[in-house]
Amino acid sequence: MSVQIFLQGKLLDIQSFLVSPPAGTPADGIPVAEEALAVARSRWVALLSEVIPRALLEELGLSKILLGASGGGQFLVVLPREVVEQAEALLTAAQHDIDRLSRGRLKLVWAATENLGDWSVVRKRLAEAMARRRGAPAAGCDESFFVPDGEAPSGDSDEYFLEQFGRKFADAEQIGWSPEEPARLKLGEGKRMWSLRARTGEDSLPVARHMAPSDDENGPADTATLASRAEGRCAWAVLRGDVDNLGIRLRRAQSIEEYVQLSVMYKNFFAGELEVLCSLPEFWRKVNILYCGGDDFAVYGAWDAVIQLARELRRLFHRFSDENLKDFPGPDGKTLTMALALATRPNSSFTAVYQQAGEQLEAAKCADKDCFSVLGRTLEWKQVTEASDLKDALSRMVREFGCPRQFLLELASLTRPETGVEGHEDRFDRPWRLNRRLNRVSGGVREREFQKLRAHVAAQMLGKSAAHLKLRPAGSVAVGWARLLTEV
Predict the structure, then answer these.
(1) What pLDDT score was predicted for residue 138?
(2) What's the pLDDT at 422?
(3) CA dihedral in degrees (470, 474, 476, 479; nearest 10)?
(4) Are 240 and 246 in contact (CB under 8 A)?
(5) Alpha-carbon distances, residue 242 vs 181, 233, 246 (angstroms)
(6) Is the pLDDT of residue 199 over 50?
(7) pTM of this prediction exceeds 0.85
(8) In terms of CATH architecture, what is 4-172?
């Protein structure tokens, strides 16, 4: 019996590739929209890690059951030793094609080892071999690797991404692959074909591709259109999320079967649940999916819908982990951290806001786990619920009882006296001014209801000390949330 070989592949520098600038001005002279190019690139990357291992097995005449895990920028397959050289040749060709299409920004690396010993030993050998590959980034590349970015050829890669993974992709039935161009995937054509529809079967690829329709329904909505659909302030936001310590959970897997089961389970959760969530009435016209990875995701859309989507996705992930991971000890891989970056203007740079969301996500994961970085604060998820309740109360005070929006700005200044905004430095050195302002707007038949609401808000946000007013983190988020919601 032939010795089995585990071959693991990874795509490196995905994030830097997604936010890299366009190669050049298109032939028609119309600038490329940043979000459209980022979406197209992300779909290409997601499908590469699904298609390449399947194409590899079919080209080598091997069974589909030898595919272990795929998606999320990496894959794992089992090969007989006799075909390893052929597999290396196919992967090298794919590596060169990926390097050319991404203009050197995206790298495919792989490592292989024998299936000998426990899975923990095999995994360690794979990790060591992968580290050697990653430590030699120029290995296998041609002379274009050393060309500075400013002198790199522009090519037609961006036009290819937009054509194949842009507007046509929403209605595509199949994705194709050809050995002549192993990284240039094409819709509906190629030597090997796989379904893109949600069907039961081994040839169907799980892809989340919901895009909110534009006003004329001739294509996906852009960021300006999504911002116009938000309640309150006309603004859009990017939401990014990542499972906490999934790498530790996978390293604790006792067998290859357990490792594959976990990898597939997380991938299917994000691809399936995000697609279903975005099809709900409150989200389908307000949210676009950027990508779904093996343990992370990114969406963008109207700021209010994105916040609600984050809360609902976290609720679903909590149920998912309770049901599927109850037999696994420890908290690793059972919690989800997210971060939201708000665009200051409808025409803000998409890549800048996307990178800001990534930076906030990293900061949140360093500070805590199972939390949400939103509107300048990092909250535990139970605090997000508190902030939502306070937001509703503050919004009622403005909309139903006629409180001036100015008092929301005064509340917000409690948490940032260092900003140096004119007129805000010493506004609350006498804290009873806030009460006096609210007293001026009270009165009428709903006096008692208003006073009860006001007392509730003060107790929840400011605490019992009138001498030292300071908003709690949930209160700070609630104030910012209410300001956005009540802005005309």
Answers:
(1) 67
(2) 39
(3) -120
(4) no
(5) 33, 28, 9
(6) no
(7) yes
(8) 2-Layer Sandwich (3.30)
